[in-house]
Task: inverse folding
């Protein structure tokens, strides 16, 4: 019995160590994720990576004629849709074998607080792109599926992502590795 208990303890330590060292897989951000830009946010002695990805294919529900220019003249700039403060629905899912470590996600929340106070209080994400903040085992992201650019504010983004995490990640059962919030019209999601 002691040997069995020791074996279980070793397995638990190994699994928690794996969770601490396994970053989120970038391929799970979106289909065909390609890095467009990357920068870093210093949070004390830690570094959070801020990355923008281009995603494959047209957004879901987008038709070939959507946002097409109506004249032969120069195309007008596309309007930016502001989703700051918009409501979305929480959905729990799996993007890995284990949920992120709470402390890693707290570091991202701190980075977003820093961004909100040091640059524009909002950010823009092009059509079929995703913006992510990653640290250790945790990633927060905003993904735009619409045919138009979208803007969101940092505080709304962190509130939505944190609420999705609280609704889906431990101690919530069953264990999930991802919390999402999906817009009612499915044009964007936060995770």
Result:
């Amino acid at each position: 019995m002691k040997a069995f208990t020791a074996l279980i303890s070793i397995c638990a330590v190994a699994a928690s160590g794996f969770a601490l060292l396994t970053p989120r897989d970038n391929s799970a951000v979106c289909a065909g994720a390609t890095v467009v830009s990357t920068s870093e946010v210093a949070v004390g002695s830690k570094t959070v990576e801020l990355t923008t990805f281009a995603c494959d294919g047209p957004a879901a529900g987008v038709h070939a004629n959507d946002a097409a220019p109506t004249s032969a003249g120069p195309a007008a700039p596309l309007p930016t849709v502001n989703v700051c403060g918009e409501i979305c629905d929480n959905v729990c899912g799996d993007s890995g074998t284990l949920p992120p470590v709470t402390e890693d996600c707290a570091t991202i929340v701190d980075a977003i607080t820093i961004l909100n106070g040091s640059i524009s209080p909002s950010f823009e994400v092009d059509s079929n792109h995703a913006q992510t903040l990653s640290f250790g085992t945790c990633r927060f992201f905003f993904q735009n599926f619409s045919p138009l650019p979208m803007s969101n504010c940092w505080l709304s983004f962190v509130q939505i992502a944190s609420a999705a995490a609280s609704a889906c990640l431990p101690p919530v059962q069953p264990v999930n590795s991802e919390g999402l919030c999906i817009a009612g019209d499915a044009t964007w999601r936060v995770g």
